[in-house]
Amino acid sequence: MKQARNWSVLLGAGFLMATSAVGPGFLTQTTVFTQALGASFGFVILTSILIDLGVQLTIWRVIAVSEMRAQDIANTVLPGLGGFISFLIVLGGLAFNIGNVGGAGLGLQVLFGIPVEVGAALAAALTIAIFLVKEAGKAMDRFAQLMGLLMILIIVYVVFTSEPPVGEALVRTFAPTKLDVMAIVTLVGGTVGGYITFAGGHRLLDAGVKGPAALPQVMTSAVAGITVASVIRVLLFLAALGVVSQGLTIAADNPPASVFQLAAGNFGYKLFGVVMFAAAVTSVIGSAYTSVSFMKSFHPSINRHENRLIIGFIIVSALIFITIGKPVSLLILAGALNGFILPITLATMLVAAYRKKVVGEYRHPLWLAVVGVLVVLVMTWMSAQVFTQQIGGLFS
Asked: What Cα–Cα distance (Å) separates residue 185 from each residue in 28, 100, 190, 379, 387?
């Protein structure tokens, strides 16, 4: 019974991270960049998966062996750094969550024809109900698993109906004809940047899966999460590529919905509603849960009233969306912000991996350290390039 419970926690943490990564922004970004880069977008996906591995495996290991949350680790490395990182992550998490609530509302609008604002309110109510359950952690784990599997099954169907050129996609994944630094930074920032990187690690910590002895279980959970996110990423890319390769025009106002509709007709459009709702509502949960976990170090009472704060976070996100509307520019800004946060948080964790007062006698694998340093350098350079482009665009 205990072993079954443990597997549920491990898979739940993995799926929480994966479904947090696969939100409304993820669906839109994948479709838009596939339309722009064609089969060469496979290279961007491969790059993001490799970066994902280097980032997640290091961060999950350090959190587990230190038995501390990321912000506490950062404060141990440099006093005050944890507060700074927490501020950035909570700010980015709120920005994304406004879009996530809106995405869930859009999914319900597609399915039932109700106004987006009403759908957003209903989706917020559903996620709040999960945190009102006595065993909220268990409910969250199960819900993330169910929604993740549902998304995979639906996207597999759409891939078959869109008939993508799989051979060309495979070739261009390793030999791209087009490269786009902005695409890499955006995709990485939206899938392993900000709060997403810590969702699974913090969930395992709260579930008591921690310490050097738990590393095999932690790695199992991390790999499961990375695999799920990567599978969804690849399948969505293939579905969009199938539509693009047929010369069909993807609607600019809602690119992912257009892909599903062009691939499978009106039934496909309804399936998009299910996928959008599943992707958005799980991201609402992941964003709210992880953002509040970064507040726990500020005051002991926050830990005691965690679920209430998570519910408050969701309510604020929903109210901002309902009163102001879907902040597209805010989502873009949040994605860029996450791209900048990643090098800071990963560099902090790499330093912590070699501090005895943080990890004790634990020895971080050399290959992970090398990969981590490369990711920090590459993402810093790429983020600087994107930042320069954005600034240049403002004054041109």
From this structure: 15, 20, 8, 7, 10
